[in-house]
Amino acid sequence: MLDIACGAGRWTKVLADKFGNRRVIGLDLSDAMLAAVQLALPGILTVRANALSLPFGTATLGAANCFAALQIMPDPAKVIAEIGRSLKPDGTFTLGTLRPAPRPVQRYFQRRQEEVFRTRSFHFTELETWIHAAGMRICHHIAPACFHFVTARRL
Ligand SMILES: C[S@@+](CC[C@H](N)C(=O)[O-])C[C@H]1O[C@@H](n2cnc3c(N)ncnc32)[C@H](O)[C@@H]1O
């Protein structure tokens, strides 16, 4: 179970608590973040790598999680393609990312943030297209406030 762009391990810990340290790998581009994961979850396997080119063989992962990170990736379609490539058939992909805020005032500030920090928000159809192209089918999607929470399975 790979936690992609795991940061300081907020969701890595949730996964490890539920499924056990030995079944979870934290992946991030930042050594500092991975050091924080090691402090929080001593002994957990971590890997420094780019989500755009996952260092795992084709159809080797049981599950992949990516929360609060797709919106800062330079090529989110490629990240999702990599997840689809790496997942075993029936493997699960859970995604938490941003959508354009529905309230105009909220969208105004979100847009400013996107411009300053070069982040993004996604329309569901975009995510859907990339997830399907990566060989996955969406089983669940909710979009509260300015978030998307998606669960998909590898075909
Ligand atoms: C906002 S944090 C989210 C961390 C964690 N998923 C969470 O929800 O707390 C985004 C993380 O993405 C990582 N990151 C950014 N670009 C990345 C890339 N191309 N490959 C892997 N990690 C990346 C950053 O180092 C950072 O730790």
Automatic annotation (TrEMBL):
This is Ubiquinone/menaquinone biosynthesis C-methylase UbiE. It comes from Streptomyces spectabilis. Keywords: Methyltransferase, Transferase, Ubiquinone. CDD domains: AdoMet_MTases (cd02440). Pfam families: Methyltransf_11. InterPro entries: Methyltransf_11 (IPR013216), SAM-dependent_MTases_sf (IPR029063). Residues 2-94 form the Methyltransferase type domain. One of its GO terms (biological process) is methylation. One of its GO terms (molecular function) is S-adenosylmethionine-dependent methyltransferase activity. Gene3D superfamilies: Vaccinia Virus protein VP39. The keyword Nucleotide-binding does not apply. The lineage of its organism: Bacteria, Bacillati, Actinomycetota, Actinomycetes, Kitasatosporales.
